[in-house]
Write a structure and sequence with these properties.
The complex is a heterodimer of chains A (441) and B (486). Chain A has 441 residues and is an alpha+beta fold. Chain A folds into four domains: 84 residues, Uridine Diphospho-n-acetylenolpyruvylglucosamine Reductase, domain 2; 119 residues, Uridine Diphospho-n-acetylenolpyruvylglucosamine Reductase, domain 3; 97 residues, Alpha-Beta Plaits; 82 residues, EIF_2_alpha (Alpha-Beta Plaits, 2-Layer Sandwich). Chain A has 15 helices and 19 strands. The longest helix of chain A has 17 residues. Chain B folds into five domains: 87 residues, Uridine Diphospho-n-acetylenolpyruvylglucosamine Reductase, domain 2; 119 residues, Uridine Diphospho-n-acetylenolpyruvylglucosamine Reductase, domain 3 (2-Layer Sandwich); 115 residues, Alpha-Beta Plaits (2-Layer Sandwich); 87 residues, Alpha-Beta Plaits (2-Layer Sandwich), CATH 3.30.70.2740; 51 residues, no CATH class. Chain B is globular, with a radius of gyration of 23 Å. Classes of the chains: A alpha+beta (441), B alpha+beta (486). The interface between A and B is large, with 86 and 91 residues.
Chain lengths: 441, 486
């Protein structure tokens, strides 16, 4: 059988490489491999890619698997290149506040390690228990604190990447500022592993916040104008929130116990500055709004809980419902409209919908749970809604059978020929994560 | 429409003239072209074929399409303040000057963004939104003159990018004319993370080799509630460097952390904005923190403590905005100030991991001794971005070449320390051979492959950014200065 032949061929060429039969059972999210290889060195990664490229074998790249449900139209590629065993910290330069890690290193492990030095990677992606740094960067995952710290493109300063033909290239460097040549880091961040396999990532770190508080401002009337007007007033002050995230009533109930639209406002600074801002916002809030504050550990627990809300490809799900996750990008304050719309869809389609979005960065996340037809209909409406606002909707988690019914990335932009041109230059045989990305790349 | 009668039979010039509107929209006579034979990098000069001044995107697209169809080399130019020669017409290019596209198109305070044309001057943006308490963060020293289009091309930095990032961190959307004349809009409305490869990130800092930006959506920020600036004098450069590391290690992210060495201090004190720095100190640090007023004092105290532990000779906090402004004027005009103590100077732009500061400064000192040229150091110490200023006299035979070699040696020192050859000035013509200090052939090919996707005929700004394939290490020494430049 094909798989056995492939295994035999790979193992005879690379006897040291750990390899196993991949298709034990069919995964509902697809993106599997007929054989799974577990390289432990960059040379092994390059060998696998060179082999696949020469033999025209398709390759899916994965580590923790939390993003297995994002993109891709195949049950299985020939080879699943797992970076699970390619992990570890390569270099942490305390004084430079830079960190180089192998791509398969679990995100949480890194954060825990550098927290010991009062430093952090200023990104707050989801599925922290499973996500690896390589996955976070490849999928360009980001959370509410993007308002304060930006996204992967603002923190990644260098990478090592293996091209499909086995060539290793370095992008960027180890300095926080660098304009030598094209800013190639950007090309690979968010490229869903369609251009190369990222093996090492160098990040710019931030000091761990000295103090942190979370303010919850509730809007019991659910009036979007009121939320808008408060947010505009607040954003026009000199306060410096690191997150200004609007929670839908359903999500708010789960996280805070209040079943109404709630603004989660995060302040991170020295304690005196945090307390000043908390008092400031309390005075500013509408009279009808509820107000509560969580400090330090309890604030962190709230954000941590939020990262566990989205459906996650690494966790086996056998329930009858269809679960989907949508990422919507619109102008910052249009997030309020998106939140309202997703709240209304809940009843129209008999779905559980939990949603949140950043009023300072314009990225919203909507998690749907229900019958597959209802989920798909609601997704269609959300996409149209986002597009009418000039934005987009990407389906960041959806079972394979449904991904085949809808373009998870939405319509191709007019300049997608440039995407094709880039892909063709780097991966001319199209072996890497085929059809995983925009426009069928 | 006003149309000037053209005194030429050149069919290309005559056709180009029809593509642009307004008075004097094309220059083609040698005496008019002289002003465009270089930018802020004055060592290499070439005359363009013509300079055209389009008024809008459509005109840019038409010009580009015409150039592309007729295989005429072309490039875009803003204010011409670039320091690496990115706008020098090496191949007798048609220069598309974007200075007439200088409108502020939109300001959306609520969503914190502004839309500008590429010829809009950096500082004007901040000035025009200051009354509402907003500003545009990237602040290159030339911000009073440089254009935001040029900033995008070079991914310009500035003194305040330690905390707030460089240009690329503030660009939300671009309208671009591709080298074939097609117009595309990336991240319309400045919405984040539009699906697809990050062309926004790729174009920013591509030094005008991938496309011509015709509209830019930038992030604007609210002014911080409070700012405090500290000046610290050190008797030893090592102590100043150590203070830099210790400030960062203390968990402070200063808005700016600048350093000048003894030679640089001599220069700024002899120039237009002296502030009375003692002449005998080895290094001065300018440290700025900003943010919520309630938290500033604590951070300032921490900085004062750190400086004292690092053997500071004297440290003081700016008493008022006027004093702060004086300190900054002294620093921001630092490059030009070298003119007060040297007939010529060459600015370099290396960048290193912060912790390597003492060893790299030591090497630069050696380079200075070996070359017999003085080298002043002005740098963004917080992010490891060094600006060695090699002082020389072009009237002395051989001095210019010596200065170029010393500048290159400084970049080598940075690369060897795990750094890079440019932090914010770009590669341009100046540092293209030095690209080999940091990239191997595969890595350079990976980049030129991507350039060829956008710019397959290499008509747009050719000969920049990448080393010549067959290495000609001594090329720079063969550069000749044209008659008029002497």
């Amino acid at each position: 059988m094909v798989t056995d032949e492939l295994i035999a061929k790979i193992s005879s060429t690379y006897p040291e490489l750990e390899i196993e039969n991949g298709l034990v059972s069919i995964h509902p999210l697809g993106n599997d491999g007929k054989v799974v290889v577990y390289p432990q060195t960059e040379e092994e990664i390059a060998s696998v890619l060179r082999f696949a490229n020469e033999n025209q074998n398709s390759v899916v790249v994965m580590a923790g698997g939390s993003k297995r449900g994002c993109g891709g139209l195949e049950e299985s590629a020939e080879i699943l290149l797992s970076l699970e065993k390619y992990k570890g910290i390569v270099e942490h330069t305390l004084g430079d506040m830079t960190l180089t890690v192998k791509a398969g290193t679990p995100y949480k492990e890194i954060q825990n390690y550098i927290a010991g030095f009062n430093q952090k990677i200023p990104l707050d992606p989801y599925a922290l228990e499973y996500a690896t740094i390589g996955g976070v960067v490849s999928a360009n995952d980001s959370g509410p604190k993007r308002l304060g710290y930006g996204s992967a493109r603002d923190s990644v300063i260098g990478m090592r990447i293996v091209y499909p033909d086995g060539t290793v290239i370095r992008t960027g460097g180890k300095t926080v500022k660098n304009v030598a040549g094209y800013d190639f880091n950007k090309l690979f961040i968010g490229s869903m592993g369609t251009l190369g396999v990222i093996t090492e990532i160098t990040l710019k770190l931030r000091p761990l916040q000295k103090y942190e508080s979370l303010v919850l401002v509730t809007f019991p009337d659910g009036n979007p104008e009121e939320i808008y007007s408060f947010s505009v007033t607040f954003l026009n002050t000199v306060m410096e929130p690191t997150a200004l995230e609007l929670l839908s009533p359903a999500l708010s109930e789960k996280l805070t116990g209040h079943s109404c639209f709630t603004l989660a406002v995060c302040f991170e600074d020295v304690e005196s500055a945090v307390r000043y801002q908390v008092e400031f916002i309390e005075k500013l809030k509408p009279d009808t709004s509820g107000f509560s504050v969580l400090h330090q550990e309890s604030a962190r627990a709230f954000w941590n809980l939020l990262t566990k809300i989205p459906p996650n490809g690494a966790v086996e799900y056998t329930g009858p419902e269809t679960r989907a996750s949508v990422k919507i990008g619109v102008k910052n304050l249009d997030v309020i409209k998106v939140m309202k719309e997703s709240h209304l869809l809940q009843d129209r389609y008999n779905l559980d919908i939990e949603a949140h979005g950043g009023l300072g960065h314009g990225i919203a996340r909507i998690y749907l749970n229900g019958a597959s037809d209802d989920v798909m209909n609601a997704i269609g409406i959300l996409r149209t809604f986002a597009e009418k606002l000039g934005g987009y909707a990407v389906l960041t988690h959806l079972p394979l059978v449904l991904r085949r019914q809808i373009d998870v990335w939405g319509p191709k932009p007019a300049y997608s020929f440039l995407f094709d041109g880039i892909k063709s230059k780097i991966d001319p045989k199209r072996i890497l994560n085929p059809k995983r990305f925009v426009g069928g790349i | 429409m006003a149309r000037n009668k053209l005194d030429t039979n050149d069919p290309h010039i005559l056709h180009l003239a029809k593509l642009v509107s307004g008075p004097n929209a094309i220059l083609y006579k040698q005496e008019d072209l002289l002003a465009y034979d270089c930018d802020g990098f004055t060592i290499e000069r070439h005359l363009p074929r013509a300079v055209v001044f389009p008024n809008n995107t459509e005109e840019v697209a038409k010009i580009v399409k015409f150039c592309s169809e007729n295989k005429l080399p072309f490039l875009a130019r803003g204010a011409g303040t670039g320091l690496s020669g990115g706008a020098v017409p090496l191949n007798n290019e048609i220069i598309i000057s974007l200075v007439r596209m200088k409108r502020l198109l939109e300001v959306d305070f609520e969503n914190r963004r502004a839309v500008v044309e590429p010829g809009y001057v950096n500082l004007k943006l901040t000035n025009s939104i200051a009354d509402k308490g907003y500003y545009y963060a990237p602040d290159p020293s030339s911000q009073y003159a440089c254009t935001i289009g040029g900033n995008v091309a070079e991914n310009a930095g500035g003194a305040h990018c330690l905390k707030y990032g460089v240009t690329t961190n503030h660009i939300l959307g671009l309208e671009v004319v591709l080298p074939n004349g097609d117009v595309m809009e990336i991240s319309p409305n400045g919405i984040a993370d539009f699906p697809g490869y990050d062309l926004l990130g790729l174009l920013t800092g591509s030094e005008g080799t991938l496309g011509i930006v015709t509209k830019i959506t930038v992030r604007i920020l609210k002014n911080p509630e409070a700012k405090q600036t500290v000046l610290a004098y050190f008797d030893r450069v090592q102590d100043g460097s150590q203070a830099v590391s210790n400030i960062i290690s203390a968990g402070i992210v200063p808005a700016a952390l600048e350093m000048m060495d003894k030679v640089a201090i001599e220069g700024v004190e002899a120039a237009a904005f002296p502030v009375g720095h003692p002449k005998d100190i080895a290094a001065v640090l300018l440290i700025e923190v900003d943010g919520i007023a309630a938290g500033i004092d604590e951070q300032i105290q921490l900085i004062l403590d750190v400086c004292k532990k690092s053997h500071v000779r004297e440290v003081k906090v700016a008493e008022d905005e006027a004093e702060r402004a004086r300190w900054w004027a002294n620093r921001k005009t630092g490059f030009g100030a070298m003119g007060a103590i040297s007939p010529d100077y060459l600015v370099q732009d290396g960048v290193i991991p912060r912790s390597k500061l003492p060893e790299v400064l030591e090497r630069i000192h050696k380079i200075s001794e070996e070359s017999g040229l003085r080298i002043a150091n002005i740098f963004h110490a917080g992010d490891g971005n060094l600006h060695p200023l090699v002082l020389f006299d072009s009237r002395v035979p051989g001095d210019t070449e010596k200065a170029i070699r010393a500048g290159s040696a400084c970049l080598k020192a940075c690369a060897d320390a795990g750094g890079s050859i440019t932090g914010e000035h770009g590669v341009g013509i100046e540092k293209k051979e030095e690209m080999r200090f940091v990239f191997n052939d595969d890595e350079i090919k990976a980049q030129t492959d991507i350039r060829d996707v956008f710019n397959p005929d290499r008509l747009l700004n050719a000969g920049k950014l990448f080393p010549t394939p067959s290495r000609c290490a001594e090329m720079k020494q063969e550069l000749k200065r044209p008659e008029h430049a002497k």
